[in-house]
Amino acid sequence: MAGGDQPPAGGQQGRRYWRWSKEDFFPEPSFQSWRSYGGALAATVPRLRDRVAARSTDAIEAGTLLAESENPLRRCLTWVDLAFLGFGSVVGSGVFVLTGQEARFDAGPAIPLAYAAAGFSALLSSFCYAELATEIPSAGGSFSYLRVELGDMAAFLAAGNILLEAVVGAAGLGRSWTSYLAALLGRDSDSLRIHVPALAEGFNLLDPIAVVVLISTSALAMSGARLTSTINSLASVVGIVIIAFVMGFGFTHFHSSNLEPSFFPFGAAGVFRAAAVVYWSYTGFDMVATMAEETKNPGRDVPIGLLSSMSAITVVYCLMSFALVGMQKYSDIDPNAAYSVAFAATGLKWARYVVALGALKGMTSGLLVGALGQARYTTQIARTHMIPPYFALVHPKTGTPVYATMAVTLGAACVALFSSLDVLASVSSISTLFIFALVAVALLVRRYYVAGRTPAAQLRTFLCYLALLVLSSIGISVYYNSRYAGRWPGYAVFGMGWAAGTAGLAFAANQQRVPRMYGVPLMPWLPAMSVATNLFLMGSLGSLAYMRFGICTVAMLVYYVLFGVHATYDVAHSVDAADAVADNVEQGKIALPVSTGPA
């Protein structure tokens, strides 16, 4: 990290929380006047050279930066809270919507294997998140991990994608909530929306109910993490009862003949296509990592809460999907209302209301936990001044980042009011897999490289094997989606490249750091598999996803060049930064994290 890369003092006694001034949004010297901003723009190139590879530290991300919020987030959560938060954030409407679609068109009766494959990939990522969250217990989650291990540029690109997914994901859930409410009332999915013919197609069905739901769940999230966690836990119990009903009645009407004549009607390729789609039923677990700063004992509670919830969810998804294809032959499954139609076919027409209620509960919990996690991401990003530090402020009474929550909610509400689900779907997906792959790489970097301590020869060895691992993973993904996918030599070449890269890390490179509390098992094989599986699933996405990713990346880089790089440069090179941090520590404004150790 660049010398003196410390933030200026954040805590200021006696200041009101509810305030709104230029100084709150742009306190850095580069933005004090048009003249100073012009000078900053003229120095863009050397500033970019300074910031692109600058790395943060554990102490800064989980300690020093906390002063920017002026008030602390409250440590009030246990592993039980985290497990239920993981369940609430992941188990949404996806399993009810995607299972029928993928069983009907891609996987057939083998849909449980698609969920198992996707769950395996998600579980690999959750292992990586668990170790990094215990080592760097910051509200920034993946943003903080990447800033420490891969530098400012990688962290900024992750930050932009995190904020984009926060807005689009919440808006999509809000729109889906309205559709399922209509289904619960026995009406058409668009019947509760307002049609405005003057607006363009895809934006002409206004959804005020989605806006109300988004605002309501965010208001609850702003009231406090403890209260939100309690309500989520109670709602999760309801969700478990509904899932038990679906599986119980499903297996009661299970007929093995529905699995015939072929368990793999679309072959292995169909199972992998389905796995890439149903993977989105697992997204959201990373929100648990953002709660590490509010966890009483993150070294113990985060791994237990994260891994237990993801393991249980994988089993539940496999059983729910197996019950569906056992109730009804895959070719007869309704791709739009799979469980409702399957239950109706067995004479349980009333069960569609239970399914709709379960989906509504899942989406409500997803919005609630999402509001918690997304606001924490935003808070940490603002603490670094990549976005205005105004959004880092924590309310003194609730102990929550009210401004950050409001900002994400306002953006999501505006999008949800106008945009249809198919429009939202075209601008989602790839960012999550991209970030998960980067987090796995960051964990490998953390274990095998320590700045100022790792010998140059060791660094070269590590980088060579890491490059071989990553490039081989990309090669497998590209080859699988090419016209040569049916030929085995390509898989053998790229597979051996991946194995050689991972084996090189295991036997030729020396680990430079030992985890303080929780460590990922089977290092480096497990994170290497996480890199490969995430990149493989990325390869299954269409060209539209990559086009959107490219456009958004360009827009993010423009913002970074015009604003982000200058704000972070000023913070890193503030003349008084070191003295300000020392004063804050002495006055108790910065509370450096104290680990209680493993139980």
Polypeptide structure, described:
- This protein has 599 residues and is mainly alpha-helical.
- It has helices spanning 22-25, 34-42, 44-52, 58-62, 79-90, 94-107, 111-135, 142-149, 152-184, 208-222, 225-252, 267-278, 286-289, 298-327, 338-345, 351-383, 402-418, 421-425, 430-448, 456-480, 488-507, 525-539, 543-572, 577-587; strands at residues 194-195, 205-206.
- A two-stranded antiparallel sheet has the order 1-2.
- Helix 6 runs antiparallel to helix 12 (267-278).
- The radius of gyration is 24 Å and the shape is globular.
- The relative contact order is 0.18.
Largest sheet: 2 strands, antiparallel
Strand content: under 5%
List the helices and strands in order: HHHHHHHHHEEHHHHHHHHHHHHHHH
Apparent shape: globular
SSE-based structural type: mainly alpha
